[in-house]
Amino acid sequence: MKRIFVSTLLALTMLAPLALSAQTTMFKFNQDGEFASLNQSTDPNNSFSLSVSRNFTTAAGSSASLTYTGFSFAPDFSSVTVTQIVGAIPSSDFTGQNTQNLALSFDVSQLDPSTSFSQTCTVDLFSFNLTCGPIPPGTIQLNFTENGAQRTRILALGEEITTGAFTTRIHQRSDNSSANVTGTVFGVTASGAATVGVNHSSSLEFIRN
């Protein structure tokens, strides 16, 4: 299954249709302030990862950025659907005065194509026929509560990941803590362990080659 998964991911990222070409092909977010992240496998067929962070506040105002990737296999493993979001969201979507309590309230309709990239692709694992299009309507409603069970510091992380037509560059310095999370992600109940923290002059750069 792992080999199929890798082949699927490459196909999804390399063969995305030209219909999505109007979306932004490169953007960079300077992240400074609170963030929260979550990785969850809701069952053997479904999983997702999510991260939201406050960006630098500028004269133009404040903003936040979101990354989300979700995988959903058909019950018979005949197909897999991958949903991807990378981009800016309104600062009012990510609230909380400190890492003790943070909340994310996001609606897909808030995405701006000039500052974000999003798509849903489904690939038939027998024929490898690929169908891509806009992500369906939906919301993410999450509450993060810091528990302090484990604390870590990232002193200097530099990472570049290229998968098919997409390159993501991450530079991070942050103080992190374990947290509990409750809520829903596109209708799926989220619960269990998460991470909250504070970014210090970190950055996320996304490039569609």
- Oligomer kind: single chain
Distance between the termini: 28 Å
The helix count comes to: 1
Provide the number of structural domains: 1
The count of β-strands is 11
**What characterizes the major β-sheet?**
11 strands, antiparallel
Strand order of the largest sheet: 5-6-9-10-11-1-2-3-4-7-8
Quick one: overall form? Answer: globular
Tell me the fraction of residues in β-strands, as a range.
over 45%
N-to-C series of helices and strands: HEEEEEEEEEEE
Q: What does this 3D model show about the protein?
A:
The chain is mainly beta. The protein has one domain (2-208). 6% of the residues lie in helices and 67% in strands. It is built from 1 helix and 11 strands, in the order αβββββββββββ. Strands 5-6-9-10-11-1-2-3-4-7-8 form an 11-stranded antiparallel beta sheet, covered by helices on one side. The longest helix is centred in the first third of the chain and has 13 residues, at 2-14. The radius of gyration is 17 Å and the shape is globular. Residues 1-8 and 10-19 have low confidence and may be disordered.
Per-chain topology:
Blueprint: H1 2-14, E1 26-43, E2 46-55, E3 64-73, E4 79-89, E5 94-98, E6 101-107, E7 116-124, E8 130-133, E9 139-163, E10 166-185, E11 188-208
Antiparallel strand pairs: 1-2, 1-11, 2-3, 3-4, 4-7, 5-6, 6-9, 7-8, 9-10, 10-11
List keywords for this structure.
single chain; 209 residues; mainly beta; 11-stranded antiparallel sheet; 1 helix; 6% helix
Could you write a compact summary of the structure shown?
The protein is mostly beta strands and 209 residues long. It contains one helix and eleven strands; from the N terminus they run H-E-E-E-E-E-E-E-E-E-E-E. The chain has an eleven-stranded antiparallel β-sheet with strand order 5-6-9-10-11-1-2-3-4-7-8, covered by helices on one side.
